[in-house]
Amino acid sequence: MLLQAFLFGGYVALVGASPLSIFRRQWTEGPKRNDLEVTKAQYKGIRWDEAYRDCNREEIDYIIEATRMALEVVSYKMSDTDSWWNSAAWHRYFVRSDSVTPGTGWTDHAGNHKVFVAMINTFTSLQRYPREGKIDNQGNNYNIKKQVTYLCNDPKNKCKKPDERGNWGGPQAYTIKPQFNKEEVFQINFCPKAWHDTNRKQVYINNLLGSGWQSFGGIRKMWTHEAMIIHEWMHASTISGFTTKVVDVRDKISVLPGAEDEQIYGDVKCHKYAWKYKVNGWNVINPKTADNADNWAWFFTYNYVGGKFGWRVDGSQNKRDFPNDDNANITVDKDHNSNNPMSLITRETEDDYSNDHDPDLHVEAKNLPKLADLPMPINCHANGNAPDGTPLYKCDYMGEDYDSYVAEWKASKESFKSAGNCDLSFECRNPSGNAINAKCLCTCDGKPMAIRDDKCAGFLGSLPTPPHA
After folding, report:
1. Under DSSP, is residue 156 helix (H, G, I), strand (E, B) or coil?
2. Using one digit for the tens of pLDDT, what is the confidence trace for 180-227?
3. What is the C-alpha radius of gyration for the chain, rounded to an integer number of angstroms?
4. How far apart, in whole angstroms, are the C-alpha atoms of residue 77 and residue 38?
């Protein structure tokens, strides 16, 4: 068996074929303090002390490697909005705006657009928070009061042991919200099932890539440790940065009569949920996909694996991708800009792992926040236009959950810099509906400047149409 050596975190790890042996450190004794300090320096947004205290040697290695690669997965080909907005992964789990009826997409519908900007904010936070954390008021490189704690001690008694046949029950991991503990931080607890359930066929994403090229038809079986980590990160608002809590949605995945609520979990159901209103002649997006943690986890998995394998499909299932699979009774949607029905798998062959996460985070779709009630993220600024002319946004890194960021911002009432290095008053972050706040002021070199001046670009909201001469 060929082995490859990878250097990360100050130690060499050997990669073999077994998912249970990949990336292990060679321990001669228990976890050392210097190992902990190295890990803490690499991932400042995570509090590792409890994990090093309570996780066994093997589990520590699993968690570190899955965290390392999860960061690579959420950052892959995500450098600008257009790179992921037009991707097959986005089309599969969230749906491209140019494939639906005008006025119902992510950027040309007022309510959807606020969700879309919040998602841009989440991309920024996911890619930076685990490594950078939150700089505290004294300028230290991380603030322990804002860290997300990793655990293996099962404080809520939700982890299960395998039965006599080796079948594991309970969740793989679960996230504890701040109100449930004295630390007032998010905590992610990893159960032994996450790493030791050999029946589950969950692997590191590098094992998946190293097992040989696979076609797009296999995506529904590609369960990875990194996707599990990303799923839990989405529940921890400090990491996700989303304007509302991301949960495990229960809803109908069909608009047809008789459809029943079910857990939106796994590739197939996340895909169908995203395309729920795109079929049967409705042809609109489903913005509630942004509330579902597993849609995010599968989006990033597909984006990474599809990019590495070089898949050339638009994200909808295609018969030619698995011609020998009798369960793939599907229609072909060759053109993602068309109004053709979604290509559905009529008899799902996907493994059911819907019990792998905490039922306390299951939320009925009817109880999700309404689009009209969602705020436009105040840390996001206009940054060019979409092809249809709708403004796009770039989001400042928060280093904490959105609500805490807003509270700190309101307390400070500080101005911020425009694109032309002028000072914009704090009201410029708070639009009135879709319009600019009437109290928004721009000052350049101490002198008032007309808000329409290009130097003042960066405020939120649109300007009123100037009167005709």
Report:
1. coil
2. 455 578 999 999 999 888 777 788 999 999 988 888 888 888 999 999
3. 23
4. 28
Cross-strand partners of 448: 443
Kindly report whether the global pTM for this prediction surpasses the value 0.85. no
Give the model's pLDDT for residue 22.
35
Instruction: Find out whether 109 and 200 touch, Cβ atoms under 8 Å.
Output: no
- The predicted-structure confidence for 125-160, as pLDDT tens digits, reads as follows 999 999 999 876 555 556 677 899 999 999 999 999
Q: Which one-letter amino acid corresponds to residue 218? A: G
| Positive/negative CA dihedral, 79, 84, 87, 90 | positive
Among the listed residues 288, 301, 443, 431, the one whose alpha carbon sits nearest the alpha carbon of residue 364: 288
CB atoms within 10 A of CB 397: 16
Confidence of residue 175 (pLDDT cuts 50, 70, 90): very high
Statement: residue 352 has pLDDT above 90:
no
Beta strands in 321-389 (DSSP E): 362-364, 380-385
396 Cβ neighbours under 8 A, 6+ residues apart: 124, 379, 380, 381
Distances (CA, A) of 227 to 8, 296, 463: 20, 9, 42
Is the CB of residue 282 less than 8 Å from the CB of residue 313?
no
What is the pLDDT averaged over residues 37-47? 93
Please answer whether residues 284 and 103 qualify as being in contact, where contact means their C-beta atoms are separated by less than 8 angstroms: no
Using a 10 angstrom Cβ sphere, with 0-12 exposed, 13-18 middle and 19 or more buried, the burial of residue 16 is: middle
CB 105 within 8 Å of CB 98: yes
Residue entry with tokens 């990336």: 23
Take residue 356 and report the two structure tokens written for it. Answer: 């792998």
- How, if at all, do strands 148-151 and 187-190 pair? parallel
Q: What are the structure tokens assigned to 331, written together?
A: 């229609």
How far is 276 from 287, CA to CA, in rounded Å? 10
Q: Which are the contacts of 357, defined by CB distance < 8 A and separation ≥ 6?
A: 171, 172, 173, 174, 231, 248, 265, 293
- Provide the residue type at 129 as one letter: Y
Mean pLDDT of the chain: 79
Tokens 């807003």 appear where?
Answer: 406
How far is Cα 229 from Cα 304, in angstroms, rounded to an integer?
15
- CB contact at 8 A, 257 and 250: no
Q: Which of 197, 219, 231 is nearest to 70 (CA)?
A: 231
Residues 425 and 75: their CA atoms lie apart, in Å, by 32
Give the per-residue pLDDT at 450.
Answer: 94
